[in-house]
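Holo model, cobalamin. Inputs:
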Amino acid sequence: MWLLLVLLLPPAVLPAQHCEPPAGAVRALSSRLLGLAGDPARGPDPAVYLALRLGGDHDLRLERHYLQRLHSTFQHPYGRSLQDSGHPGQDAELSTDAGRPQTGRLALYLLGLRATCPPSEPPRALVTWLKYHLEEDWTGSRQHGRPLTSYYQYGLGVLALCVHHKRVREEVIRRLLTAQHHGRLGHGGTAVDTEAVVAVALTCLERRRLVGARLAAELRVAAQNMSRSMAEAQGPDGIIGNIYSTPWALQVFLARGVCHTEPAYGRAVAALLENLEAFGTAATLAQVLPVLHGRSYLDIASMRCGEESDTLTAVDIEPRPEAPGNKTVRLVVECPLPWCFELRLFDQRVSAPAAASLLDVLRAATEQEPRFTFHTQDTAQGPFLTQVLGLEARQQKRNYWQLLTAPSTPLLTSVADYIPRDGETLILRLSEW
Ligand code: B12
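Output:
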């Protein structure tokens, strides 16, 4: 009877697992992520834990150990309020890092807690903290027209609360609908990642019946429109936005259950499978692996704790091969913002070993030209360039150091992962997002 029912069901309502691409290469990627997760020198990242949990095969011992590391990272700063089970208001200095709420990271950690086996109820105080960060973001968006963090983090916050079946104020949700309606979700050229996070969050609220019928209908229409516009944005190569936003677009198709009916889905999966070498860092692997297993973050809400296969083994990423000889790279620093003293602040040829990354080139520049200075900050994605020639990109002013290859193509990786060619011109441009 059940079999008959399953056969009669339209493809769109089959469980997401049936959209899993049949690829052995995916297992190799999972093993690589496991290798990176087992490296104690790397700080724990809740997105990595989520990817391990959403995989088909596991190393359960390593996952338990990784979860412990996450607990110490996340529950320590919130520890005092956890012990008091107090209100965030009593401990307001904990709410921010350099004055900004921690909406996105806390949201990912809470998603991780729901993905444990058996799923853990999050400490009440942590849910309160996330709601508090969201409210701060929401107030920020009323004052500045956008959240203090970003719509990406705001969307993750709503999604995490929804996955834990916690209600969110209607006004907080409406902020996302308004931003989507006015096309304000994008930043710096690519909006796909952010739109996709928001679409998955809205789909969650609608599906888990956390809102009234009228709002649910609005959320459904908004998420459908976003899913359609993502399919329309697909290039002839199958990529949606760029190769790193394509996994997020796929999450939308999976969450909405349209992976069988949406032709863009198969083309995007094929594009990912053709470009697997682009996913070499823990952060990019963590974003691509769930969709290669046919899963979206919405599936975390319905994860069942059954017999889990425990046979995944770690593989270490091979170090980049050394290349003989040297190369010369032209390094240009630009400050085109209205308050800048002059446009071109630096323009020099820098010589570096042939295999040098952009980060190595920047280091070589400091030795060859003492006037040149820079700083980076470690993030889950790698080193984030924060300061060049003493000029700090100010988060509050939405400034950042944009990385481009001449004449004006933005790089798709961190300074540590980009290997410039001999003779290439690289531009560090202070920009607004
Ligand atoms: C918002 C965002 C930005 C904002 C961040 C500011 C802010 N206060 O939010 C701005 C516009 C500054 C930005 C810049 C860049 N970004 Co960006 N960004 C994102 C986005 C949409 C969300 C990040 C986020 O909030 N994550 C959630 C929080 C909880 O995690 P987090 O670790 O705390 O996030 C911080 C870091 O991710 C950091 N960050 C953001 N982008 C990047 C990129 C790199 C390479 C590094 C090292 C750090 C970094 O800022 C975040 C907020 O503090 C992601 C999308 C995605 N799919 O991940 C792209 C994304 C991470 N960015 C990307 C890229 C390529 C860049 C740039 C290199 C673009 C460029 N050519 O200049 C620059 C970084 C240059 C530099 N100075 O080193 C790629 C990275 C791909 C990869 N190979 O890893 C992504 C995946 C987008 C994409 N689809 O291409 N980004």
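The radius of gyration is 22 Å. Residues 1-17, 80-87, 89-99 have pLDDT under 50 and may be disordered.
Archived with the compound record.
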